[in-house]
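User: two proteins, same treatment. go.

Assistant:
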Amino acid sequence: MNTTISSDDTLEAIKLLNGINTLENINKDFYYDETNNYRKVHLKEGKLNIEEDGDFALGGIVVNRDIVFDLTDLYKQIRLDKSANEMKFKHVARGNFLEILNSKKLKSILEFLLNNDIDIHLQRVNVFYWSILDIIDSVIAKHNEEHLLIISHVNIKDHFYKILLQRKDDTLQLLNEFSYPDVTSDKLSLFYKKLIELIQQGTDTKNTLDHLLIHVLELGANLDEAVFIQNEKRDILIDNFSIFYRYRALMFPNSFHYFDTEKQVESVLLKTGNSFNGEDLVNYCFITDSKQNPMIQLSDVTIGYFAKLFNFCKGRTPAELQLFRQNLSTNQLEVLKLSRALIDKSDATNPAYFHHIIPISEGSTWAAFAY
């Protein structure tokens, strides 16, 4: 029997978290492409099956319903090779990120988006962060009366992530040892105690976040049940990425969502229906031929570029990014200025266009680079 997921609960959660009350009234066309789609993330012998190149990103452009732009003049402006058949990010810019910023073709496309009042949207997921969040959330779910934990949970998770990232090999070995995310009840206490030992290694002094994090893990060691890290598929950190596609369709139920073809995701979504206000929700499709869809092509370039911008800034401090800016060319600085303008414009239209599952410390570093 199919299990139908309702948009109603998703919208209520978004309203509660973000104070956005009108998502069900938005009537737009969303076009998508993705990058760093790892499809499945699992552990084997203490190692991930993937070599992470960056955050998973799903997004593209947003326009009014039934608007489709003719890109003929844009193709001519960027001198798109006729043999290319379609515009993709690789036809616009190549090389490392600083070399990408030098692309005049990219500058032309960003100007095209702004001049035609096209918004961008983006969902960004730090795969390692997403994979370990449930360790903390399982504790908070049982101790939601502790206001200090509720207030500080985002910073606690960020601190947890940064410590485990520094000891990533040891962390993955530990997760593998306990068949995470299916930690059996008889090993649950030991699992949290081992995490405490891992975190305390090499730590001489403890700040407030150290104390809070250790407190959370000590609470975990006394749990009878950890709701999010038990009875799941052993060693499977992310079974597939369909949840992120589904989330966008549920978030904007009265808009239409055009995803670039992704057979695995399409298959998973077909098995589980969506609903809104008690009625079946069919507000998405998968485009099998992007050559015939200029909006998907624009999304390819958009998500390809902005994902690289965020990944370049990931893990770098504002001071480090400022040093990079000092040596940028005029074109590079103009591309960054256009990037910031597009983000600010789209965010002003609707902040829900952007959804990030990332550590809070990585949330705004890009702003020190793109202005």
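Protein 2:
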Amino acid sequence: MMSASSAELSGDIIIERIISGDYPREAVETFARGFLPLPQDDLIVVLAYLTRSPDAEIASAARSSLADVPSRSIQSFAANESLPPAHLSMLMRASEDPFVLEALIRNRAVPDELVVELAAVADAAVQEVVAINQARIIRTPGILDALLANPQLTPDVRRRALETREEFFDKKARIAAQQPAEVGEDEAMLTLSDEPIADLLEKAAQEPESDSPPPVLMESEKQDEKKLSVFSQILVMTVSEKVQMGFKGGKTERMILIRDHNRLVCGAVMRNPRMSESEVESIASMRNIAEEVLRLITLKREWISKYNIAVTLARNPKCPVGVVLPLINRLTLRDLKGLKDDKGVSETVRGLARKAYIQRSQKS
């Protein structure tokens, strides 16, 4: 059943094989009971993934096994900023331990969008940790909205949340309303605070200015004087300067910098407040950008809720299988039919689309 040796296995490989249906249910249930020849961190990832299994018995077994992992190990995992954000996100959705959740909220590698989800349902102990993390709230105001909508919100946390909203958002909005509006988006850089990208700038300052290749201009872009001018500026910029341009620049700057090889620059572009739905759809179709950019799209509810963006991501062969999986269930029969026959995507994605198409066709 397991053709690879234990040395070759990892949490991601096990999860990918589970998604692909390579293992029979009995094997997956065994995994959920914690019987896996994996290092502790990889075991935590697999168990966290299986807690959300549609099979109730497997999900329950995984939750019990995760609860049996030594608390020191799982809290160390939750606090580790070098782990992939996807792994940390799985644990955040799987755990109810307030100490684990606190470590995850404080972990800068955890996407802010996951904290939004947690804030909406957190109990009193976790609410307090969310409310005092002002850096996250300033970057992603949706955390505050979700917290205030939490039906279990305590009076003390509500007071703190309202004070934070007044200090960092309502007051600034009143000041901004008295200032003239900005001109067209490609006319000038926005005048914005660096606070929403403070985490990216901090990491950028620690990175050596390497000789990594700049983003590549398309043939059609080489005929555009404005794009050539912007590209020339980018060539001599530091990582920090590109991060600022990605966050504050217009559409021309965004569409060039989103193809930068540095993930911090790409992350700044995706936080640009002028990013439109049509741009996100265009980015979702790109095959020359980092996989992390495609993951960032799925973490923003207002984007991934749009069907055209979801189907574009599903068709992109660069999109990771773990990102495509939940999207397949949303596709129409017509789009499933196209995806199952699309040789441009991986065999795993085609197989999943084929299975969903057959199941859906039989019901209709």
